[in-house]
Design a protein that fits this description.
It is a single chain. The chain has 358 residues and is mainly beta. It has a single domain, classed as Kelch-type beta propeller (Neuraminidase, 6 Propeller), CATH 2.120.10.80. Helix content is 7%, strand content 37%. It has one helix at residues 2-26; strands spanning 31-39, 51-55, 58-62, 75-79, 84-89, 105-109, 112-116, 128-132, 137-141, 153-157, 160-164, 167-168, 171-172, 176-179, 189-192, 204-208, 211-215, 218-219, 222-223, 228-230, 235-237, 268-272, 275-279, 292-296, 301-303, 321-324, 331-334, 337-338, 342-343, 347-357. The strands form 9 sheets. It has a 4-stranded antiparallel beta sheet, with no helix packed on it. Strands 2-3-4-5 form a 4-stranded antiparallel beta sheet, with no helix packed on it. It starts with a helix and ends with a strand.
Length: 358
């Protein structure tokens, strides 16, 4: 009798263990890397191609367009910590300020914000404006010295800002200029030589440890596949961002076997926790991107965790506004457009180290 009870007890324990294991296997949760938290909607009209810059933990948004032959000159600030927008200048403001435009480029240096270039619906532009947060005022400074353009990219290293590339009625461009806010009026801009890469419009840039990385964009209706870095003195070509082996130099081509969707234009670019991130945008073929890729500057390699990253939570789009917080561990995206008739005003916070359940 005791033997029978022992056997029954043993069988019951084995059956219970099998049930537990089966339940664990069938209920196991899978996750993707990165989390997109929805935040306060942008207070102004939906738009794409607005200029933007960040000072401390405050993001600033100027201008943009909505595809209805309407360009804006309104300006808003976004409090990154408190998650709300404030209108600083309305469309009817009579203050001295930049004219309505889209696809201008913005940067911050020396505690002030700047926008330059852009498109007013008729012509490309080259005027440059300086914004002082403490007085909430604009003043016009030296015009951008290169060809008039829109869709340029910009970045800041130490006390200098750099603006280059973009396009105008004659096609894409590749020249770069440095802006020094400490020089006297009439001497702010200096041409920077040495960039040997592709002409590109609506390219992206991010800065890690005082080194700028140039990636993406399009030229001649094709994706730009070369990538460059700039340390304030020297331009250096990096690995290509495509799996086209014909472009890859050297014998080891395995690094790019999975580089299927890095190329894009009009996307977003963050420097977070010592890594570079690009997302959204579109390929020159017209397909919109919802994923993001992570760049490691120590290895010059890209990854998207074998495709296991969290797609953007909102609608795919190009020419969005994007910020990072002062701590450099969170990214923010707002506005943008898709096609000629869809424009957005939603805002998302990107947390790169969080996971989302599939």
């Amino acid at each position: 009798m005791k033997v029978m009870n022992l056997r029954k007890s043993t069988n019951y324990m084995l059956l219970s263990l099998l049930v537990l294991l089966s339940t664990a296997c069938t209920s196991s949760t899978e996750y993707t890397l990165g989390y997109w938290h929805q935040r306060s909607d942008f207070d102004g009209k939906s738009r794409a191609g607005a200029a933007f810059f960040t000072i401390e933990d405050m993001g600033y948004i100027f201008g943009g367009g909505n595809g209805k032959n309407q360009r804006f000159k309104s300006m808003y600030s976004y409090d990154i910590n408190k998650d709300f927008f404030t209108e600083l200048f309305s469309e009817t403001s009579t203050a001295t300020m930049p004219s309505p435009r889209e696809l201008a480029t913005g940067f911050a240096v020396g505690g002030k914000g700047y926008i330059t270039c852009g498109y007013d619906g008729v012509n490309p532009l080259n005027d440059t404006w300086e914004y002082t947060p403490s007085s909430n005022s604009w003043r016009r400074v030296d015009d951008f010295p290169g060809d008039i353009r829109y869709g340029a990219l910009s970045f800041t290293i130490d006390n200098y800002a750099y603006v280059g590339c973009g396009y105008n009625d004659d096609g894409s461009l590749k020249d770069f200029y440095r802006y020094d806010p400490n020089q006297a009026d009439g001497s702010h801009w200096t041409k920077i030589e040495g960039y040997g890469g592709s002409k590109r419009a609506m390219g992206m840039a991010f800065v890690i440890n005082k080194v700028a990385y140039i990636v993406g964009g399009k030229n001649n209706n094709s994706d730009c596949k070369d990538m460059w870095k700039f340390d304030g003195t020297t331009w250096t070509r990096l690995r290509y961002i495509t799996n086209d082996d014909d472009l890859v130099e050297g014998t080891d081509k395995s690094f790019n076997d999975d580089y299927t969707s890095i190329v894009r234009y009009g996307g977003i670019a963050f420097a977070l926790n010592g890594k570079g991130y690009i997302g959204l945008g579109a390929a020159a073929s017209g397909s919109y991107r919802s994923n993001y890729w992570i760049y490691d500057p120590t290895t010059d390699l890209w990854s998207n965790n074998d495709g296991d990253v969290t797609d953007f939570a909102g609608s795919t789009r190009i020419n969005s506004v994007y910020f990072t917080n002062k701590a450099g561990n969170l990214g923010f995206v707002t506005t943008g457009g898709s096609g000629s008739s869809s424009f957005f005003d939603d805002t998302y916070q990107f947390s790169p180290d969080e996971y989302k359940e599939k």
